[in-house]
Design goal:
8-stranded mixed β-sheet, Rossmann fold, 13% strand, 14 strands, alpha/beta
Length: 471
């Protein structure tokens, strides 16, 4: 937690402003309940320094988005507003930003809701942009909603693809338990204002837009990118077991879009499901540095939390340190607790490379990419992107990743957590240059055929034809 030392006058400013709502603050930030103290005390001690919102009428991220000069002052946004901003006539509420796409007459309008837009962009954020790009090509008008606007570049990228961006603070990962009615009401207002004909939520972890759609009587579409079965950490964050999570998704959705057949299997017994593989733009990887003539770089590209298999990657590097000393292993992604704990005894052939700002930068550091997830992943974006860049790949054989790789042709599938099998496959790939380069070429061709823009737009267009006919 980040603490800020407030003067008595600062405390009086916050308390007397009327901006703080204890009920809203507790619902928005679930960890406040664990603090076991008065919510206002938590906000004054920690929330202000962490740039949390005190209530629905002040948005820290929107204030910083509108007024970037505030960040240079070092003053928390709410204190800047109360001391200076309101005298200057500055706006303190949520963001409403016009997009660059003109409203197309006689074409349906849909609301597409994102669940994250943080400092670092991962697969969820990139997938959200992919959905927006496809809807542009389908000539569908889009109102996009985001839960915060901390990442200016991302919000601008969203705005370039839609008619309007609306900022609706909403607690993510709250599938089980009472609804956040403030957000439901906001989504209902947006739906009515824009005559929205369907709501499309880009994750199972956000339900308030779906509830709003149900109450108004328009289709509620969930884009499922999560497999609850076999992922207790995901289920815990959502507040139930796998069966309860799937039941909640089915209750809130009229239709589920699954990003793989493995994902679809989780929901198909309870709700109609359509499979649309994630989009991977092969053309975006044509300028990435090619595989070296003598390849030697192996990378794990992920969010680097424990369940991504970071420990297994360290074990593989250790197993090959003496046998094939020419190989170098790169951990690409945030330097998490999992990485820091392992780094104290890391092998000499392993490099903690840090976060890469885009997939091209990440894959440019690798000749061979692995996915060692300890839970079944719904798709495996880093693997598909590596294939698009002509890299051989290796992954544990479960979840959606199994649908991406043709074993022995585009890469390797090995039993989950079988480090010995992974080591054997890596040895085989790197001692046979002809096989290595053939796998990379085959992977690129498969990525274009299965995950390219044309099949993605076609599949999503088919889903929308069905969804809009539900009315």
């Amino acid at each position: 937690m980040t603490s800020v030392r407030l003067s008595d006058s600062d405390v009086d400013l916050v308390v007397s402003s009327g901006l703080f709502s204890a009920e809203w603050y507790c619902r928005m930030y679930s960890d406040v309940a664990e603090y076991n103290d008065d919510p206002l005390h938590h906000y004054l001690l920690h929330g202000i320094g962490e740039e949390r919102d005190p209530g629905p009428h002040f948005s820290s991220s929107a204030y910083l988005y509108r007024y970037p000069d505030v960040e240079q002052t070092g003053i928390p946004s709410v204190l800047h507003y109360l001391r200076l901003g309101r005298k200057m006539g500055r706006i303190c509420g949520t963001l409403r930003k016009s997009g660059r796409r003109p409203l197309l007459r006689n074409r349906p309008t849909v609301l597409v809701a994102a669940h994250s837009a943080g400092k670092h962009l991962f697969g969820g954020e990139r997938s959200f942009l992919d959905v927006l790009d496809a809807l542009v090509l389908l000539n569908i008008n889009v109102i996009a909603t985001v839960p915060d606007v901390r990442n200016r570049d991302y919000i601008d990228a969203v705005a370039a693809r839609v008619h309007e961006v609306r900022h609706v603070p909403c607690p993510g990962w709250s599938l089980i338990g009472p609804n956040f009615e403030w957000a439901v009401d906001e989504f209902q207002r947006i739906i009515k204002e824009h005559s929205v004909r369907a709501v499309h939520v880009n994750t199972i972890a956000l339900r308030e837009p779906l509830i709003a759609a149900k109450r108004i009587g328009i289709p509620a579409i969930v884009h499922a990118r999560e497999i609850p079965e076999g992922d207790p950490t995901l289920c815990q964050s959502l507040g139930g077991d796998a069966d309860e999570v799937v039941s909640a998704v089915a209750e809130n959705a009229d239709l589920v879009i699954a990003n793989s057949h493995a994902t679809a299997a989780c929901y198909a017994r309870r709700v109609p499901v359509e499979v649309v593989y994630n989009l991977v733009r092969v053309e975006d990887f044509r300028n990435v540095e090619g595989v070296r003539a003598t390849p030697n770089r192996i990378a794990l590209i992920s969010s680097n939390v424990e369940k991504k298999g970071v420990a297994d990657f360290f074990l593989i590097a250790s197993a090959l340190e003496e046998i094939m000393p020419e190989l170098k292993f790169f951990v690409i992604g945030p330097e998490t607790d999992a990485v820091r704990q392992l780094s104290g005894n890391k092998p000499r052939n392993l490099i903690v490379a840090g976060y890469a700002s885009n997939p091209q930068e990440a894959i440019g550091q690798a000749d061979f990419v692995v996915n060692l997830s300890k839970v079944p992943e719904s798709f495996g974006r880093s693997i598909a992107e590596a294939m698009a860049a002509g890299r051989p790949v290796l992954a544990y054989d479960w979840g959606g990743v199994s649908e991406l790789i043709v074993n022995g042709k585009t890469g390797y599938l090995v039993p989950p957590s079988n480090v010995v099998a992974a080591v054997a496959c890596i040895k085989q790939a790197f001692v046979d240059p002809k096989l290595f380069h053939a796998m990379g070429a085959a992977g690129r061709a498969l990525a274009q055929e299965r995950f390219g823009l044309a099949p993605y737009v076609k599949s999503l267009g088919s889903v929308y034809q069905k969804a809009l006919s539900l009315q």
